[in-house]
Each structure stands twice: as structure tokens, then as C-alpha cells.
Design goal:
The chain has 321 residues and is mainly α. The chain is built from 18 helices and no strands.
Length: 321
């Protein structure tokens, strides 16, 4: 199975004591594993020192996941499963760690690990049909696995519909990801437009719809969606980057785009947000569209210095030399 990042769970960690529910502890685990900054990882320590038994093994597994030690993490989650076999949370995380192993294993080991991943997700759903993370795990599996290991767009879509009944927002994201994997652009747009109508403050539908319109070079529609995004979520720094990207790609509203990108450069991006190197690359594109080759070259050089792996900036710089 190839790695697929379908969504990022947005969770808020609150101080947790020994009497916290397992689902509260799990929210911290999601936060830590999806964004393993030192500050987030530190949230686990007081929990580890206060827990015993299955929950302690679970927390150790979470910590190992942040270190990308998938095998040892799976071992800890398996201990939790054996200690409390009727707890769906433990089965889900055992499946998640095993899935990470499967993605990186040699071809001989992959099928066995993949089947175990699917089996653990299925056990979690069987134990609690309302447990959304396990259904999302199955959905990811169906989208990533080849047919002979149970991969199926149709089964993924069924899971997405079940998730929608439990959580309309996460279900909408799930349906969108199924459409993306199926290369169903109409379905992708429909899913995000539905999310936008139900959750107008959510950034994800705006970002996806703008990206689709940019890819189609539907600039009037893209700018209209950008304006809506800015009006709805002016508090988000990524709005500035989106304005700059749209200007750089369309060649329209260049002054607005440059101003927005320079504003974004005053911000420190979080993981999964556009990098400052990308902002300099976009500034180079704007300068190039204005015919200012010297400034464009300087911006591309800055971008490649900040991020030598930014292929687009390297190619643009080579073109101007």
C-alpha cells in the first residue's frame, strides 16, 4: 500500500488526569501523532507517569508513533489489545501502526501486514459501529490497498456514507477523498460545495475548490472563491498565500498578490501550511510576469536557498540563468 494522507484530525488537547476517559486520552494521541512537535509530544509525559496496564501500553505506542518506530509502536498497541480485547480504540491504533509498517515493508511482508491492518480496523468497527476513526481507517485502507488485498472504491464510498451519518463534516471530507481517488472531479467539487454550505467557516472546502479552479484555469471563478475565503476567514494567514498563489498563476491582480505574499512572509507557517520558500517562489512568478527578470531571479534564488528540494523554484531559476 502506498502512503495516503487523506485528512488531518484537528483536536484540542486539554489537561488530562488519571481519571480521564480513554477517548480524551486518544484525542491527545491524535494531536501528538499528527503534529509531533516537542511541545505536543511533551503532553504525553504526565499521562505516561500516571497510567498503568493497557492504557500505559497505549500511551507508549503513541510516543513511539511520534518517533516513527512503527513496529515497536504496534507491539505496545498489541499489548493493550491483549489486555482489553473489547476496546475498539486499541484495535484501531494497532491497525494504524501496522498499516504504517505495511507501507514501508518489503513485498514479501506487505500482504500479511495489510490483512492485519484491515482486520484490526474491522474489529474496532464491530466493537463500536459509531467509532468514526476506525471507519476512517477502513476507508483509507480501501483506497490504498490493491484489489487482491481488499481495496475497493465502492467499499470506501460505503464507509464514507456511514461516516456522514455519524459526523457530517468528516463524512463530507471522506466523500471528497473517495472522489479524489476515483478521479471524479465532479464528485470532488460537489462534496466540497456541500461542506461549504453546511460549514461556511471551514477552510478546507475553500482551499480545495480554489485549487480545482486554478488547475482548470477558471480564473474568474477562482478569484470569486478567493474573495469569499478572505471574507469568511480573514483571520487565517494562509489566505494571504492563496491570494498570492492565485495572482502568480493567473497573472491577474499582481499588486494584490505581491502584497499578500509579503504579508505571509511575516508569519511562521505551521506543519502542512505553505512554506516561506514557496512564498518567495510565488513572488518570483509575479516578478517574472511583470517582466522583471532580475527580481524574479532573486526570489527564485531565495526560495531554493531556503528549500533546496523546492523543484519548481529550482527549475524557474535554471530557466532564467
Amino acid at each position: 500500500m502506498s502512503p495516503i494522507r487523506l485528512f488531518t484530525l484537528l483536536v484540542i488537547a486539554t489537561p488530562l488526569g488519571a481519571q480521564s476517559s480513554l477517548r480524551d486520552v486518544e484525542r491527545t494521541c491524535f494531536r501528538v501523532t499528527d503534529n509531533p512537535t516537542p511541545e505536543n509530544v511533551a503532553l504525553l509525559q504526565p499521562l505516561v507517569t500516571s497510567e498503568t496496564g493497557a492504557r500505559l501500553a497505549f500511551l507508549k505506542g503513541c510516543k513511539l508513533m511520534t518517533e516513527e518506530k512503527w513496529g515497536p509502536a504496534g507491539g505496545e498497541f498489541e499489548k493493550a489489545v491483549k489486555a482489553e480485547p473489547n476496546e475498539p480504540v486499541y484495535h484501531f491504533w494497532f491497525g494504524r501502526a501496522t498499516g504504517e509498517q505495511a507501507q514501508r515493508a518489503n513485498p514479501i511482508r506487505q500482504p500479511g501486514l495489510a490483512r492485519r491492518t484491515k482486520g484490526e480496523f474491522e474489529k474496532a468497527v464491530a466493537l463500536d459501529s459509531t467509532y468514526v476513526p476506525a471507519r476512517e481507517g477502513l476507508l483509507r485502507y480501501y483506497l490504498a490497498a490493491p484489489g487482491f488485498l481488499g481495496g475497493s472504491i465502492d467499499n470506501a464510498r460505503k464507509q464514507a456514507l456511514d461516516i456522514t451519518k455519524l459526523n457530517p463534516y468528516r463524512g463530507g471530507i471522506a466523500l471528497a477523498n473517495v472522489a479524489l481517488q476515483a478521479k471524479d472531479t465532479v464528485g470532488l467539487i460537489s462534496a466540497h460545495e456541500g461542506l461549504l454550505s453546511q460549514f461556511p467557516d471551514s477552510a478546507t472546502p475553500y482551499l480545495v475548490l480554489i485549487q480545482v479552479q486554478q488547475a482548470r484555469k477558471q480564473w474568474a471563478q477562482a478569484w470569486s472563491m478567493v474573495d469569499r475565503f478572505e471574507k469568511a476567514r480573514a483571520d487565517l494567514p494562509v489566505v494571504s498565500y492563496v491570494i498570492g498563489r492565485t495572482a502568480a498563476e493567473s497573472g491577474d491582480q499582481l499588486d494584490r498578490g505581491e502584497s499578500a505574499l509579503r504579508q505571509y512572509l511575516q508569519y511562521t507557517p505551521k506543519p502542512n501550511e505553505p512554506s516561506l520558500a514557496a512564498a518567495h517562489w510565488r513572488l518570483g512568478m509575479i516578478a517574472e510576469k511583470r517582466g522583471n527578470t532580475a527580481v524574479a531571479r532573486q526570489e527564485y534564488q531565495t526560495a531554493t536557498t531556503m528549500d533546496p528540494k523546492l523543484k519548481q523554484a529550482k527549475e524557474a531559476l535554471a530557466r532564467l540563468k
